[in-house]
Amino acid sequence: MKRQSLFIPEIFAVNLVFSAIMISIPMQSYAQETNNKDQAASVWHESINDAYQLKAQGHQILKKDLAHAETVKNQVKADFDKDIQRAKDRVQNAEPEDFDAAISDAIKIKNDATTRYNNKLAEVEKLKSNFAHAEMVKNQAKSDFDKDIQRAKDRVQNAEPEDFDAAILDAIKIKSDATTRYNNKLAEVEKLKSKADKRFSSNLAKAKEKVDAIGLDAEKKFDQDEANIKSLVYDKKAPAKKAYNTKVISLAGSGEQTDADLANIKQLPKRIENTELSSRSIPLQDVPERPDTLFHLGDSFFGEGPISKGFKLPTGAVWQPQFFPFGTFSTAVQISDNGDQQVSEWVNALDIYGNLNLTPTERLLIGFTPFDNDGHFSGYNMYPQGEGVDATNGHVQVLFFEGRFDSLFPGLKSSTGNWASFDFALGRQPVSYQSGILINDTIDSIGITRTSLNLFGSPEVTITGLFGWNFINRGNDNQRDDNAQLLGMFSTFNYAEHQIEADIVVVYDVDDSNPSNGLNFALSSYQQLWGVLNTTFSYNQSISLNQGGTRSQTGAVLLSQFNLTPPYTVDNAYMNVFWGIGNFTSAARNANAGGPLGQTGILFSATGLGDYGPALPNDGQNMFGGSIGYERYLGSIHRRVILEFGGVSKDSAIAFGGQFEQAFGSNYLLTLGSYVSYQKNHIRSVGYGVRSVFTVNF
Questions:
Q1: Which residue has better confidence, 549 or 207?
Q2: Which long-range contacts (CB under 8 A, 24 or more apart) does 235-243 make?
Q3: Which helix (H) or strand (E) holds 590?
Q4: Is the confidence at residue 373, as pLDDT, over 80?
Q5: Mean pLDDT in the chain?
Q6: What is the pLDDT of residues 295-330, one digit of tens each?
Q7: Containing H/E element for 640?
């Protein structure tokens, strides 16, 4: 839309009033008539009356210009309506063989009319806006000026003969000061007008974008209507259907919609002007309270107030001890039938940890699982055993210390390099790589990590070396191998558009007459395509280094994951596919972790709680499959539902399942899940599962 050059008539009115006021200053008459009080007062009154008369004339010109603006607006609207009617008549009166040309003419007539209407409307609105704003400032300045003039008049008229000379001088000074202030106000008016012009230009550009969008919608609608009319013409039904052409084209309706859109455009500059940021501070609203710990020693968990001074070690490090417990308790009632085995049970799990923070980078963590041990959970097995299960224990499941070397020994920091800047973790600790496909276990190990390296074109590279000597679970049954040790190197490369992970692990048996050594390596890439589609591609390979080894076998798993957030939602739509070649085995997997393909979807993932198994096999050996699902948030992030469909080639199995989660406050979560499956080569071809889990986080 081309912007028209604007003539601003109020400049003439402002200058006219200003000139009248300047003419009305009878400075010379004061000097000539110092001895004649009555004559001076008479000349003064004549000058003031002339100024008021000129002011009245200026107001008349202003009103005339405003009326002219309304007349222009009404004329433009009338012209627009005539053009719309002309477009309607062009189409309505067209013969079938002239229908295509009539449609094109109607579109051009309407587009041209809309453009002219918008240009004139923008011109009128700018004139009115500038008139109103400038007139307000001018009126205030004129009111102040009139008060000062009246004060000067009173000073002269009320003066005694012996004081007349001094009164005249005072009046001259008052008028001079008033004139200076008035001129300053006029200069302010010009600045306001200039600012209004700039703001209007910005608003007009935004309005143009709105008009362009309206034009695109109108063109799309006309294209659809044109196609419908062509269909009628080509089917030789145009004469019979001609009475409906007005409805088909909907020009009248389009005109009404255009009027509404143009009304919104007229209000756009004012709405933008009224949305300036307030200088008044507004506090955050409805901020949920931070969940507190059961208890703490030292500084409170994410608390407020001063931090304790702590104490200084001989190494130079300053420790500020802080201890607090945290954990999760879950209780579940669940029933499942995978086609070969039925399970009905009530199971419980408690994961409790004690966290001792020494600095922001150093901590000691200890953890227990007193209600479960080696894949068994305390509770009651209703079917098939019909008996209670006692898996209580006092074993330490997690115990490790982690920190940063140059934080423990700050004196080693050097301006010549940061060779001491590496992280480490030592003890029985959870280890997970390749999203749990390669390793997902708790291992007695030591890991050393170096971050912020610049390698292979990546400005942010992380490399970790890991050695594990005990507590390693492996094989297809995720059982403990007391003779196994693990050595691996794991690296992450971050680039502008994607992230790459490359890992290699060797697991070997010591003091074993029948070792089962294995080599695992993996490569994965995470990226976003076209700005909306999040994707993951991963390749995991296991190689058995001993013939006949059962805990390390040869195979590969290829996994591709796709997900996106639909527009105007916080939901998640996803599709995951995999291909398992041979007998892939992870380097290490916890007894409760299930198979390596748990992240394919809820139909494949292990619950980690009891004997309730996945709806579909998740070992990934000699099969391909996948899932498609939708994660929907219902009203808030505290309530969601997941629906998923999946299948695998093994036993031609398919399944459909869902999961509902409802959070209560910050500490409680209710989970309801179910599935139904169909598979061949099982005792029962139809499987199912239903479960209810209540979780408390503390």
A1: 549
A2: 238/96, 238/99, 239/96
A3: none
A4: yes
A5: 77
A6: 888 888 777 778 888 888 888 888 999 999 999 999
A7: strand 639-648
**Residue of 210, 204, 195 whose CA lies nearest to 125:** 204
Crossing angle of helices 99-157 and 164-234, in 10° steps, is 170
Closest among 125, 87, 129, 117 to 104, alpha carbons compared = 87
Distance CA 376, CA 609 (A): 9
Closest CA to 670 of 659, 681, 678, 679: 659
Predicted local distance difference test score (pLDDT) of residue 67 = 64
- Indicate the pLDDT class of residue 152, thresholds 50, 70 and 90: low
Tokens of 510: 């010591």
- Tokens 């000129």 appear where? 54
Determine contact, residues 378/389, Cβ cutoff 8 Å: yes
Range 413-419 average pLDDT: 60
Helices (H) and strands (E) in the chain, counts: 9, 27
Global pTM? Answer: 0.60
Whether the pLDDT of residue 159 is over 90: the answer is no
Q: How far apart are CA 472 and CA 445, in angstroms?
A: 10
Cis peptide before 384 (omega within 30 of 0): yes
Residue type, 568: Y
Question: Tokens at residue 516, please?
Answer: 């089962």
Query: Please, which pLDDT band fits residue 499 given cuts at 50, 70 and 90?
Result: very high
Q: From the centroid of its chain, how far is CA 64?
A: 51
The answer to whether the beta carbons of residues 435 and 599 sit under 8 Å apart is yes
Q: Write out the two tokens for 140.
A: 């205030």
CB proximity list for 518: less than 8 A, separation 6 or greater: 506, 507, 508, 542, 543, 544, 545, 549, 551, 552, 553, 585, 587
425 has pLDDT over 70 = yes
Torsion sign, CA atoms 238, 240, 241, 244: positive
Q: What angle do CA 557, 559, 563 make, to 5 degrees?
A: 165
CA nearest 677: which of 639, 625, 630?
625
137-to-133, 401, 486 alpha-carbon distances in Å? 7, 72, 82
